[in-house]
């Protein structure tokens, strides 16, 4: 398939996503918008296909990857909470962020009209591209390689959702539910320090279980510091996974 030149070599994209395709036609298809395919169809090049079928498959693969992770790592959450967190981690806005992070729009094959209308930066298109690329990796390299590609994006988004309380469950709520399994335990958050000027203050909290410190947190607000302390406690008890970036 002889496509017109990409804005950047596809090898640059492969380097960014950490996967080199054995079948290059898969990544070409994953990056082909319907507007580009339609332009070539008008010229009689009907062999050119857009990414829509790959996007369909990628949606399911991403759901399985995310579900596997949540089921394994967040065993304190029930089905309803898991569903809400998964939905937030794989929604259009999240997928758009994932694609933007490695400049997926730069490699998109797009029609002239869509180009003029800013299609390379369009939220819905970039979300679709992520799923299409994931499906291409899944077909080319299998589930494990697809998981390796998608999971860093998903886990970071889930961490963000839990810490911000934008998911149905935040760290404080999760910790409270965990502690409530044992009657009589007393959980409290204690402000142990603060520093900085009034406009840029940092707060330091400890979360204590029966007067024993089980987590410490720092934040630009008391809520954030409490959330970080609760998160540390949840990691201590093995309720949620530790972020690898925090291990160094």
> How many E-type strands?
3
Query: What is the beta-strand fraction?
Result: 5-15%
Shape: elongated
Terminal residue distance: 46 Å
Helix content: 40-55%
H/I helix tally: 11
Order of strands, main sheet, comes to: 1-2-3
List the uncertain runs.
Answer: 1-5, 244-248
Query: The biggest beta sheet, please?
Result: 3 strands, antiparallel
Structural Rg: 22 Å
Compute the average pLDDT.
85
- SSE class: mainly alpha
What pattern of helices and strands is seen along the backbone?
A: HHHHHHHHHHEEEH
Search tags:
248 residues, disordered C terminus, mainly alpha, single chain, 3-stranded antiparallel β-sheet, elongated, 11 helices
Report on this structure.
The chain is 55% helix and 10% strand. It is mostly helical and 248 residues long. A hairpin with a 2-residue loop joins strand 2 and strand 3. Helix 4 crosses helix 9 and helix 6 packs across helix 8.
Write the topology of this structure:
Blueprint: H1 10-17, H2 24-30, H3 34-41, H4 52-73, H5 79-89, H6 92-101, H7 112-116, H8 123-141, H9 143-164, H10 171-179, E1 187-195, E2 202-209, E3 212-219, H11 222-236
Antiparallel strand pairs: 1-2, 2-3
In short:
The protein is mainly α and 248 residues long. Helices cover 55% and strands 10% of the residues.
